[in-house]
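Async update (no meeting this week)

Hi team, since we skipped the sync, here's where things stand on the single-chain job. The sequence we agreed to prioritize is pasted below, unchanged from the tracker. I ran it this morning and attached the output directly underneath so nobody has to dig for it. Comments welcome in thread, and please keep replies under the output.
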Amino acid sequence: QVQLVESGGGLVQPGGSLRLSCAVSRTIFSANTMGWYRQAPGKQRELVAAITSGGSTNYADSVKGRFTISRDNDKNTVSLQMNTLIPEDTAVYYCNLKYSLGWTSKDHWGQGTQVTVAS
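Output:
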């Protein structure tokens, strides 16, 4: 069973920075995509940023230029560096791993970590 464990959330003032990390419990040998999603109260879960095993990245327009996603394939980790945080970034952030195993698509989620941007 694949498990994802997030860390690094917390309370930060507007304009501040946080770094989220996610550790995957085992190596995924097939091509895969790791990403960060977030869900604010009363809103749908949305993609924040994603990175493929080949290093291609994708960002939500709202975080471009402020957030950077990276991964370490040797350590099975993905990180999200969040700079110039604004109150609208407040949400529960979830780590996600997507890959295919034969004809089956796999989709794994972490438990979520709270990020609160407030003064």
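Quick observations from my side:
The chain is about 0% helix and 55% strand.
The CA atoms of residues 33 and 52 lie 4 Å apart.
Reply here if anything looks off.
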